[in-house]
Design goal:
245 residues; alpha+beta; Elongation Factor Tu (Ef-tu), domain 3; Threonyl-tRNA Synthetase, Chain A, domain 2; 6-stranded antiparallel beta barrel; 5-stranded antiparallel beta sheet; globular; binds zinc ion
């Protein structure tokens, strides 16, 4: 199994690791440990490089299969036993961390006001969307949600990561904010992201340490996605490229 550094230290951007397995058919390798997030929970996988001395291979895709994290490489495959210096594209990842935490803060704001579960979501660096079951929505709510979301982020709330035994997690249904639980049945330990005082949920993604790192956000156009369902888009102002999410 791969030691998942990103799971306990989201700010680790580089690490040394050893190649433990290569898959020549698919052009991918397993490492002893990794700083590369393999994607999941709406957060895209990282990209970056593996360096061996002066040689540099691009990591173009990262996937996880159970406990193992695969790095899909361009430019060749290092043999088993090679020590590599792994580095993620930090600018992109940090933008995703800010975006992911903003998405959870939005969950908290919507939950407090409407007790609405999330039915879907997606994010890119600097922008994201969440779908909610929201039967009683009116257009004025958009600005109210935006104001409340920014107020919550400005409160400089701590974002804590913890791990709960599966049994304990199963006894706390509030940890699952999605309409359908996405926890694999075989999962023994559940990772929990707690925006202290605002939102606490099971999650595998990478987050900032404090909501002040997110900065100011804008809630975009809210779309109706069928009866009782709304899609809410959020853009981090500082990272806004002028494109609608
Ligand atoms: Zn999440």
């Amino acid at each position: 199994m791969t030691d998942k550094i990103y799971s306990t230290d989201a700010y680790a951007r580089e690490s040394d690791a050893t190649v433990v397995e290569i898959d020549t058919d698919d052009g991918r390798v397993l490492l002893t440990s990794t700083v590369f997030y393999p994607g999941g929970g709406g957060q895209p996988h990282d990209v970056g490089t593996l360096s061996i001395g002066d040689d540099r291979l691009d990591v173009v895709r990262v996937t996880s299969d159970g406990d193992r994290v695969w790095h899909w490489l361009e430019g060749g495959l290092p043999p088993r036993g090679t020590v590599v210096q792994a580095a993620i594209d930090w600018e992109r990842r940090y933008a995703l961390m800010r975006t992911h935490t903003a998405m959870h803060a939005l969950c908290g704001v919507i939950w407090d006001r409407f007790q609405s579960p999330v039915t879907g979501g997606d994010m890119k660096p600097g922008q994201g969307r969440l779908d909610f079951e929201l039967p009683d929505w009116n257009p004025d709510f958009k600005l109210e949600v935006e104001a409340e979301l920014n107020r919550q982020l400005e409160l400089r709330r701590r974002v804590d990561v913890s791990f709960l035994p599966r049994q304990e997690a199963d006894q706390d249904p509030s940890l699952i904010r999605t309409k359908v639980s996405l926890l694999p049945p075989e999962l023994q330990e559940v990772r929990v992201i707690d925006i202290v005082g605002l939102d606490r949920q099971a999650d595998g993604g990478t987050h900032v340490h404090n909501t002040e790192e997110v900065g100011a956000v804008t809630v975009g156009k809210v779309e109706s996605k069928g009866r009782g369902f709304r899609r809410i888009r959020v853009v981090i102002d500082e990272l806004d490229m002028g494109v609608q999410p």
